[in-house]
Amino acid sequence: MPTPPAAPPHEEPWWTSAVVYQVYVRSFADSDGDGIGDLRGLLSKVDYLSHLGIDVVWLSPIYPSPQDDGGYDVSDYQGIDPLFGTLADFDELLAALHARGIKLIIDLVVNHTSDEHPWFKASRSDPSSPYRDWYWWRPARPGKVPGKPGSEPNNWRSAFSGSAWEFDEDTQEYYLHLFSRRQPDLNWENPQVRQAVHQMMCWWLDRGVDGFRMDVINMISKDVLLPDGPPIPGEDFGDGGPFYLCGPRLDEFLQEMRQEVFAGRGDHVLTVGEMPNVTLEQARAITDRHSPRLDMVFQFEHVQVDQGPGGKFDLLPLRPADLKASLSRWQEGLAGTGWNTLYLGNHDQPRLVSRFGDADELRVPSAKALATMLHLHRGTPFIFQGDELGMTNYPWREASEFRDIESLNHYRDRVERGENPETVMQTLRRMSRDNARTPMQWDASTHAGFSTGTPWLSVHPDHAEVNVARQLDDPDSVLSHYRRLIALRHEEPAVSRGDFTLLLPSHEQVYAFMRRHEGTEVLVVTNLTGAEANAGSLPGALAWLEAELLLMNYPGVPTSWRLRPFESRVYRRR
Ligand code: NOJ
């Protein structure tokens, strides 16, 4: 199998100057007309990825799966779901990417399996099977009748609504599922579980993959006493988070994995851990370059600035100053020893332009401004497919249009509990994960060039205007802007390696910061709002107007610090 060309030698890890592109395969490109994206569809687009200039592709799960949660419910870790293709297609894709100098990381979903995984089937069918202990089986609460509401072993709520416990009639016990009831949690306390996971990971690395994005990896260690969590406002259940997020043995499990799976593999391998609610202190320890457990983590603070204590669907108005405060806090907090991921969108988040920008008149400038602000930070940028076009949230009319289990469960749960369906729809229009999952918009044709068949999820009606074909050769397109940002990270060490200094910390509209590296200074100034803003109080403001203007999202050369709505500028001086 061809190995990717070695990264240019320098003292920093290669991924400090790399940009990752996330492909949600089911929505990217469909080669066989069944309406579902697949590996051969993606294979036909590798030149597009190469043109974009990205360094790494992250593939969302492509393993055999009942697809209860878009493939995050895996029934066989060492195969490809026929929906997406075959192992031979996978190998061909890997070779095609490697031939273009692009690495491939895959999704590792090992906090839970599908309920159709042979391990769980064995575990469920026979309490005396050695597999019983591979999952979390518990009897009803003492004194309670098994199977009745309120008899669950504890009060934890599932991320997808309702209790995190499912009752099994046949064996009269409950199993834990932090996500859907078809995603039973693996018991990492059992060393055989860990060994099986390690072996599987080695199998993929031996096949040539370049690393893993690790799904909710900070949930693998639970407090084995499984205590009740604090009540969640407005819910019948409690928050088990304090007992399963970054639990007591997480560090041990990650160290063991590093030793068993990654030791001696060389530094081309990339590890990214998805870690809801990870704290800055925890993230610093996990990514500390002197003793890393993982290369980088996805933290969630900045994508929760518009949420109240009730969680994801407890929505608050977005205050740009909160976004800035959070992003800069992590820049400062991980300075020196740790490393950030940089993301505003992925398959679980609404479209970034709709959320943080303006999806209407200011779609193009706000898409470019947000991208500039994000990519110029210290860290590794992750682009979610379609964000490089400035794709926006879908105009959902009714709940039956959704396919995402989280959205569907939330709708049903709230309506059953008496909430006005239109109020629930308003929240889902803003937050549903399906906003990100509508098919990639390749051209203006009927199904946006995604498929010749009927797409599994509606294509956005704006695809006639927002699509790859229209943007590819347009130097003013959002796509061209992303290409420039990616190139800038490759070319300018102050972007990839420079330090970070926040400027104008208390400005309500403007996010300004400086990156410095060996005598080069890069100034990044972004108006995060749809109103004009004044950045004239920047230190050395007038002198900066004379510096080299590297990037901007409006035409012309600025002569003042009056910023137009969502105006963003990058200056350099040496
Ligand atoms: C996080 C994944 O990104 C999300 O899509 C999935 O539903 C959950 N983990 C459960 O695997």
Main pleated sheet: 8 strands, parallel
Tally of helical segments: 18
Instruction: Let me know the number of strands.
Output: 18
Strand numbers in spatial order across the main sheet: 9-8-7-3-2-1-11-10
- Amino-to-carboxy terminus distance: 43 Å
Unique ligands: 1-deoxynojirimycin
Form type: globular
Strand proportion, as a percent range, falls in: 5-15%
Helix content: 25-40%
* Rg calculated over all Cα atoms: 24 Å
List segments where confidence is low: pLDDT < 50 over at least 5 consecutive residues.
1-9
Q: Can you give the mean pLDDT?
A: 96
Structural category: alpha/beta
Descriptive account of the structure:
Helix content is 28%, strand content 14%. It is built from 18 helices and 18 strands. It has an eight-stranded parallel beta sheet with strand order 9-8-7-3-2-1-11-10, covered by helices on one side. Strands 12-13-14-18-16 form a five-stranded antiparallel beta sheet. The protein has a three-stranded antiparallel beta sheet with strand order 4-6-5, with no helix packed on it. The relative contact order is 0.10. The structure holds 1-deoxynojirimycin (NOJ). 1-deoxynojirimycin binds next to loops.
SSE topology sketch:
Elements: E1 20-23, H1 39-43, H2 46-52, E2 56-59, H3 87-99, E3 103-108, H4 118-125, E4 137-138, E5 165-168, E6 173-176, H5 191-207, E7 211-214, H6 241-244, H7 250-262, E8 270-274, H8 280-287, E9 296-298, H9 320-333, E10 341-342, H10 352-356, H11 363-375, E11 380-384, H12 405-416, H13 421-431, H14 434-437, H15 468-471, H16 478-491, H17 493-496, E12 499-503, E13 510-517, E14 520-527, E15 533-534, H18 541-545, E16 548-552, E17 562-563, E18 568-573
Parallel strand pairs: 1-2, 1-11, 2-3, 3-7, 7-8, 8-9, 10-11
Antiparallel strand pairs: 4-6, 5-6, 12-13, 13-14, 14-18, 15-17, 16-18
Helix pairs in contact: 5-7, 11-16, 12-13
